[in-house]
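Trying the structure run again after the queue cleared.
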Amino acid sequence: LCNVDKYMMIKLNDLVKDVTTAYENYEFNEVYRLVNAYIATLLSPFYLDFTKDILYIEKVDSPARRGVQTVLYHTAKTLISLLTPIIPHTATEAYDQLPLEKLADAYLENMPVACDYSAFDELKNNFDKFMDFRNDILKALEDARNDKVIGKSFNAKLTITPTKEIKELLDKLDSNIGQMCIV
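Done. Tokens:
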């Protein structure tokens, strides 16, 4: 997996930890809030936004495409398992649509267990910092769109004059920054 795929797996693991704690404390509203926040603030506006191009453009067996598919499969399966206790019928319907081998029903799946990803703390921290930097970029693109300077951000050309700290951060990420910012 590339670094951004690893980051998404780490964040999914963090979600599993937090949701498990919420279930253990019978805080079902917290389960909903955590899953909703994960989907609405990270998965959809970040990962799904730029990976759709990878899925459409890359060759069927390309490592980049296979990495995205792996992350999306594990994310879907994990979200279904996390939500089965509170929306069982919907979870079963979603589970039935999963490819590959599976059990007879989502009810039979074990609850996901968080792993120790502490070896990836630096990667996680670097991507968390990048997400703040990316938000600044998205704000600038939105301003340019509102001022009618650009149309779609994908048609925009982004020129970054990074500070030394940001330059080091971008180098550590070893990722396609333009692709992740959809420019």
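Helices lie at 3-24, 28-57, 63-83, 88-96, 121-146, 164-173, 177-181. Worth checking whether this holds up in the mutant runs.
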